[in-house]
Design goal:
The chain has helices spanning 18-25, 43-61, 74-85, 98-111, 142-150, 191-196, 201-214, 218-221, 234-238, 244-254, 260-282, 304-311, 318-330, 335-348, 353-363, 369-380, 395-402, 407-412, 432-437, 453-471; strands at 4-8, 30-36, 68-71, 89-93, 116-120. By secondary structure, it is mainly alpha-helical. The chain folds into 3 domains: 4-122, Rossmann fold; 124-160 and 200-282, Serine Threonine Protein Phosphatase 5, Tetratricopeptide repeat; 293-471, DNA Cyclobutane Dipyrimidine Photolyase, subunit A, domain 3. A 5-stranded parallel β-sheet has the order 3-2-1-4-5, sandwiched between helices. Helix 3 (74-85) runs parallel beside helix 4 (98-111). The longest helix has 23 residues, at 260-282. The protein is globular.
């Protein structure tokens, strides 16, 4: 019996996988394939992908065949596999990045006269073309988008993992996951990632269980990096180890009535994720160009030393440095701190937002092109639904408000471990005697601020006002 092909992409799971369900429904052996291509970018996310693929391969081997591994262009590889196996159909989950959509278009052209091509929409709650304004244009502000996207009611219920699944390698040659060279070589910088994460579908369910326990208090705790108040589901969602539908229904069902306000705030984040994909779908230049035309004239600075200090967590602002060191160590950063460090880069240092976005894409385990690009443009004030240009986070005040005792800073900036809470967010204000007592001399053991925030704020406001006046 001729098989069908299941091309795994960002849906690396067996539960609630619509492409898998459609392939199984064909009633033929399923050939599971993963193709590593030019879209597999970013050191931290490639590390995650290695272990996510390993978990999926192990799960599939329980059903007869592991993943067939190839590397190259899917629009060239899949037609060859169809010819080798006589496959009657290719099933896959659609993606919304420009390059991924181009892949799908090229594949449809290559296979149009050969077999059925069955793409399913499985990566978001609402397809980007299903949520439009009354005039038929894309939404550019999140809240109206969210109202329209959530208006039809709760997401569809997740589907169960197939009770019966017959997989086959169909005699195909396959590389190994190791052959894809996704893991770092020397030096091995991934030790912190291994300690912090369990990639794969099993790890996703563990994180989902943990998310259910914090959902009721999410609205009150979400902005506190010093406590475990967020779901940390983002990398699992990014790689499709769990679906947004399943997250929505599990959290809603597990949260008691008293905690529904918190759960609502958490579930709203799933629609923010949808909104980012939506923006990239309708505005494919989102990763590279400001959506607000006037920002093409913004006077960004060329500051390689400032950028390097920011990347390494050596700016002299403890909350910024803690976030950047957490990112380097674990491949993840608390969302409130992401906003703080992004604001510091683009508004205190006037470094182009694209430089920050590129660093995040390389170092985040949840390096999602849509969410990353939309979020950086939001902070920079040049995107849709952008933060007001005059919103420039004060890193000291942000640290005092959201890390009041300095526990987050002390964890990631150990030089300041003994600094009193009074000075933990601005250690340069401690006297020399107090610094000696804390065993840290600012400017020697820990850097002095690389920029004066007050002066930097004034310069940023002047630049933003100039751009706005030119536009007018």
């Amino acid at each position: 019996m001729s098989p069908v092909i299941l091309w795994f992409r960002r849906n690396l799971r067996l539960h609630d996988n619509l492409a898998l369900r459609a392939a199984v429904s064909a009633g033929r052996p399923v050939v599971p394939i993963y193709i590593s291509d030019e879209l597999d970018v970013g050191g931290a996310s490639r590390w995650w992908l290695h272990y996510s693929l390993s978990g999926l391969d192990t799960a599939l081997r329980e059903h007869g065949s592991g993943l067939v591994i190839r590397a190259g262009k899917p629009e060239e590889i899949l037609p060859r596999i169809v010819a080798e196996t006589g496959a009657e159909a290719v099933f896959f989950s659609r993606r919304y990045e420009p390059a991924a959509r181009a892949q799908e278009s090229a594949l449809e052209t290559a296979l149009s006269d050969t077999c059925d091509i069955c793409g399913v929409d499985d990566g978001v709650i609402r397809h980007p073309e299903s949520v439009m304004t009354q005039s038929g244009t894309p939404y550019k502000v999140f809240t109206p988008f969210w109202r329209a996207a959530s208006g039809p009611g709760e997401p569809e219920s997740p589907v169960a993992r197939p009770a019966a699944l017959e997989t086959s390698a169909a005699g195909l040659d396959s590389g190994s996951i190791k052959d894809l060279q996704l893991l770092p070589t020397e030096p091995d910088w991934a030790g912190g990632l291994r300690e912090a994460w369990t990639p794969g579908e099993d790890g996703a369910f563990e994180r989902l269980d943990a998310a259910c326990t914090i959902a009721g208090g999410y609205d009150e705790q979400r902005d506190r990096p010093d406590i475990e108040g967020t779901s940390r589901l983002s990398p699992h969602l990014h790689f499709g180890e769990v679906s947004a539908r399943q997250v929505w229904h599990e959290i809603r069902a597990a949260t008691p009535a008293s905690g529904q306000k918190g759960a609502d705030a958490l579930l709203r984040q799933l629609y923010w994720r949808d909104f980012s994909a939506y923006l990239l779908y309708h505005f494919p230049r989102l990763p590279d160009e400001p959506l607000r035309e006037e920002f093409r004239r913004f006077p960004w600075t060329n500051d390689p030393e400032g950028l390097k200090a920011w990347q390494r967590g050596r700016t002299g602002y403890p909350i910024v440095d803690a976030g950047m060191r957490q990112l380097w160590a674990t491949g993840w950063m608390h969302n409130r701190v992401r906003m703080i460090v992004a604001s510091f880069l683009v508004k205190d240092l006037l470094v182009p937002w694209q430089d920050g976005a590129d660093w995040f894409l390389d170092t985040l385990v949840d390096a999602d092109l849509a969410n990353n690009s939309a979020s950086w443009q939001w902070v920079a004030g040049c995107g849709t639904d952008a933060a007001p240009y005059f919103r420039i986070f004060n890193p000291v005040l942000q640290g005092k408000k959201f890390d009041p005792m300095g526990d987050y800073v002390r964890r990631w900036v150990p030089e300041l471990e003994r600094m009193p809470a009074k000075f933990i967010q601005e250690p340069w204000k401690a006297s020399l005697e107090e610094q000696k007592a804390a065993n840290v001399i600012v400017g020697e053991d820990y850097p002095a601020p690389i920029v004066d925030h007050g002066k930097a704020r004034d310069l940023a406001l002047e630049a933003y006002r100039a751009v706005r006046s030119q536009d007018g």
